Description:
By secondary structure, the chain is mainly α. The chain has helices spanning 28-46, 48-57.
Amino acid sequence: MEWALADPFVIDIRVADEAIDAYQHVNNSEYLRWVEQISWAHSEALGPLLSVTESLIGPWWFTAMSWTTWRPPLQTMRYS
Length: 80
């Protein structure tokens, strides 16, 4: 996969069975959970930077901007 950044922060996420809805799609709320999960993992990976920032401004992390790119399904479902 090509990335816009030379060295992006990436984690593996397993799609849990309960994240799949009746149409066999991942529920949209699950994507927001994943955003939060990767945000915390990225902060932890930054290590000392996180504790220095918290000592200066406090633990006030927030998302300034986000976007979602929807991809077509891996296979087309046919309905009769």
